[in-house]
Amino acid sequence: MSEKQYHLQLSPGDVGEYVLLPGDPGRAEVIARHFDDAHHVATNREYVTYTGYLDGVKVSVTSTGIGCPSSAIAMEELVRVGAKTFIRVGTSGSIQPGTKSGELAIVSGAIRDEGTSSHYMPIEFPAVADLEVIYALKKAATAKELPFRVGISQSKDSFYGEVEPEHSGVTSRLLERWRAWEIGGAICSEMEASTLFVLASMLRVRAGGIMVMHGEGELGSLEPLIETAVLAIRELIKGDQSAQ
Amino acid sequence: MLNEEKQYHIQLKKGDVGKYVLLPGDPGRCEPIAALFDNPVHVASNREYNTYTGYLDGVKVSVTSTGIGCPSAAIALEELVRVGADTFIRVGTSGHIQPDSVSGELAIITAAIRDEGTSKHYMPIEFPAVADIELVAAIKRAAIKNGAKYRLGITQSKDSFYGQHEPERMGVAADLLNRWKAWEIGGAICSEMEASALFVIASMLRVRAGGVMAVHAKDPMPPLDQLLKTAVDSLREIIAEDKANGRAVD
Questions:
Q1: What's this model's pTM, rounded to 2 decimal places?
Q2: Would you call A207 an interface residue with chain B, using a CB distance cutoff of 8 Å?
Q3: Alpha carbon A167 to chain centroid distance?
Q4: Which residues contact B215 (CB under 8 A, 6 or more apart)?
Q5: What are the distances in angstroms from CA B193 to CA A100, B70, B114, B129?
Q6: Which of A34, A81, A147, B70 has an alpha carbon 20 to 30 Å from A17's alpha carbon atom?
Q7: Do the Cβ atoms of A183 and B123 come within 8 Å?
Q8: Is the ipTM of this complex over 0.85?
Q9: What is chain B's pLDDT, residue by residue, as a tens digit (250 residues)?
Q10: Do B127 and A180 touch (CB under 8 A)?
């Protein structure tokens, strides 16, 4: 039990029950600055972890790397060392026309357009975010008066398949499916949410996600996104404490 | 104009229904649900589609039966949207998946397993069938007010009733049993036959859909009064919230 997890190099006690999950290892430190008394816990491969406190409760941030394969490992090992609530935080593409850069996407469910989650559950099973996490994110974005929408994310395995589909050997399939996601009302496109959600259902933990979207115009600072995610963790802590 | 005409299957035209519609499977369950509305009137009956319209807190609401299964439920949803409905709560009974369920507890559906054929005619299988989060919250508030035992979670929406209840006699027995085990491992809470197609189509049509089921577990099933009352009160909850948010309710 006291041995370190194989990839994350973390032991029980190293992380809090609440964990933010950026993709980029370099973003872990930036997020940890929003915690009280943050300290670096471990770095191995693409997995960087910091732990600190919010309102006196231990919280952590661990980077997942890009893609569902590495994210699945991160969540499995974090749950084994005691984490129970996860918010994925990062950048994403946009799907609906008219989306402005900087709008936040609060992810309610995810399109399983990737290979990892099929190793866990049949494809018909929905990748759905935890409702308490969705409500906490919504409350936080509303309190910060930031533009946001709640909706479905496309979780894909190929970044360049999305941004340059014409360079692919499966161009027509990629374009046809992208059109389907737009018709279906999906709002954003990223690379980790679906597996995190399916796995969270199986492990009986809570997971949600908030992304800042690239759309029309330049993408500005990520600080509003990070502040919203951190405020949502505070909301969840408050809700959990009052439920006890 | 097409919309002035009666819809082909449900035999309804604009004005016949409210924006808020309860969707039982059983045509015979429409009347007891409508009895909980103010001034309910019977609007139409055709095939398995039976519709009553009445009022809740002064707002027009309706109940339309879908029949059993996603094929007929998809038709009901499509045609109801064409005559002006935009908020749907599926209400009915379901099987249970988790071993600790007891008969009569309510399953408030957050998302659905697309274990059926209809929704694939609308969206690729990777697309999630998710309920509207405002409706989920409204149903949860109504369940609490009614003192109901409830849980939130995922439903299996299947095409075969007897494939679930008597899998061993099927030609695909091993597959059915393996998949049922997967749904249990995944934390799914109930099993019914319409939610997934309703949710996928609702996403496409930009309308809201949710569902509340009374779960049938190993013990005898109690009467459905609490389920029907909770479903009707869920409409009251979402109507009140829409009014507070300045959303048109009729």
A1: 0.89
A2: no
A3: 28
A4: B93, B94, B95, B96, B101, B102, B103, B104, B105, B106, B107, B189, B190
A5: 39, 6, 10, 13
A6: A147
A7: yes
A8: no
A9: 454 689 999 999 999 999 999 999 999 999 999 999 999 999 999 999 999 999 999 999 999 999 999 999 999 999 999 999 999 999 999 999 999 999 999 999 999 999 999 999 999 999 999 999 999 999 999 999 999 999 999 999 999 999 999 999 898 999 999 999 999 999 999 999 999 999 999 999 999 999 999 999 999 999 999 999 999 999 999 999 999 999 999 9
A10: yes
How many angstroms from the chain centroid is the CA of residue B163?
21
Contacts of A183 in chain B (CB under 8 A): 123, 204
Taking contacts as CB-CB distances below 8 angstroms, the residues of chain A near B130 are: 108-109, 126, 128, 152
CB A193 within 8 A of CB A51: no
Size of interface A-B (CB pairs under 8 A): 82
**Burial of B206 (C-beta count, 10 Å sphere; 0-12/13-18/19+):** exposed
Q: Which helix (H) or strand (E) holds B153?
A: strand B150-158
Place of tokens 């029309």: A216
**B247, two tokens:** 């959303």
Q: Please give the Cα distance from B242 to B250 (Å, whole number).
A: 11
